[in-house]
Amino acid sequence: MTEHLDDMLPPVEYINDDYKGSGKLTGKRVLITGGDSGIGRAVALHMARESAKVAIVYHSDDESALETQKGIEAEGADALILQGDTASSASCKQAVEEVVAQWGGIDVLINNAGMQKPYNDLSEVSDEDWQQHFDINMAGIFYVTRAALEHMKEGDSIINTTSVNAYVGNDVLVPYTATKGAIVSYTRALSKQLLNRGIRVNQVAPGPVATEIQEVFKDFDKDILESMSSPMGRIGQPREMGPAYVFLACQDSSFMTGQTLHLNGGMITNG
């Protein structure tokens, strides 16, 4: 499944025929925030190919959400598409309750919703912008997870999306980087808290990936978008992220919690 976003980004690839599902998530009920596009859509499609039931929460892009729904259903999986705002505790709780009402529970929670906005100087960051970054990128993870944990059990899995920027920093994405650093610490702490319940908590730290979130650089500094790369000499694809989330969701990673998978094209993070 491929989509073309912008001439400065390569065509976005969500999943391809090389990925063969093997029933790793048969019958599992998966909830993905920010699941309508980018990495979230790729994860949804990979989970569906592994025979999971997939629910996504999206903010406002109805067309993109419907495209993801079609993709999930094309894999032969059940899909549930929920409009919501992860910056709202009530909205997060409602999304969880809708999944539980439909399928009876949640086995895998993927906190992926996020936003970023670049600034040349900290003085340009308004109070509202700073708060918005934390409301969407960090508070939303807390809200959804708190609600979902009421319906999760031993053997279940929580997966958060952080970023390479949490480890290497980014001079024009200070608020975004701060939230991603918070996610790293949150993941490690929560994984310890949930050990006695047998629920694993891990995270994925993508590097530069061809997704809609990068388009904020078009009106800020096109040179950043055009030069976005990695030691591999290219930007990553959402389809290259999806299998990592499958691994963390299924029992292949049963001895793994509080850890980070770094998918960044060779950027050394020492994290």
Question: Would you spell out the secondary-structure blueprint of this structure?
Answer:
Blueprint: E1 2-3, E2 12-13, E3 29-33, H1 38-49, E4 53-58, H2 62-74, E5 79-83, H3 89-103, E6 108-111, H4 127-148, E7 157-161, H5 165-168, H6 174-193, E8 200-206, H7 222-227, H8 242-249, E9 260-263
Helix pairs in contact: 1-2, 1-8, 3-4, 4-6
Describe the structure.
This protein has 271 residues and is α/β, with parallel strands linked by helices. The protein has one domain: Rossmann fold (3-Layer(aba) Sandwich). Helix content is 37%, strand content 15%. It has eight helices and nine strands. The protein has helices at 38-49, 62-74, 89-103, 127-148, 165-168, 174-193, 222-227, 242-249; strands spanning 2-3, 12-13, 29-33, 53-58, 79-83, 108-111, 157-161, 200-206, 260-263. It has a seven-stranded parallel beta sheet, sandwiched between helices. A two-stranded antiparallel ribbon has the order 1-2. Helix 2 (62-74) links the parallel strand 4 (53-58) and strand 5 (79-83). The longest helix has 22 residues, at 127-148. 46% of the residues are buried. The mean pLDDT is 94. InterPro entries: KR_dom (IPR057326), NAD(P)-bd_dom_sf (IPR036291), Sc_DH/Rdtase_CS (IPR020904), SDR_fam (IPR002347).
Relevant terms:
271 residues, alpha/beta, Rossmann fold, seven-stranded parallel β-sheet, two-stranded antiparallel ribbon, 8 helices, SDR_fam, oxidoreductase, Sc_DH/Rdtase_CS, SDR family oxidoreductase
Low-confidence sequence ranges: none
Under the CATH scheme, which class?
Answer: Alpha Beta
Cα distance spanning the termini:
32 Å
Order of helices and strands: EEEHEHEHEHEHHEHHE
Q: Report the principal-axis shape.
A: globular
Oligomer: single chain
Q: How much helix, percentage-wise, in residues?
A: 25-40%
DSSP helix count?
A: 8
Physical arrangement of strands within the biggest beta sheet: 5-4-3-6-7-8-9
**CATH architectural name:** 3-Layer(aba) Sandwich
Mean pLDDT: 94
**Could you give the count of β-strands?**
9
Which range does the strand content fall in? 5-15%
Compute the gyration radius: what is it?
A: 17 Å
Class by helix and strand content? alpha/beta
- The CATH topology is given as Rossmann fold
Count of distinct structural domains: 1
Family: Belongs to the short-chain dehydrogenases/reductases (SDR) family.
InterPro entries: KR_dom (IPR057326), NAD(P)-bd_dom_sf (IPR036291), Sc_DH/Rdtase_CS (IPR020904), SDR_fam (IPR002347)
Keywords: Oxidoreductase
Domain Ketoreductase: 28-207
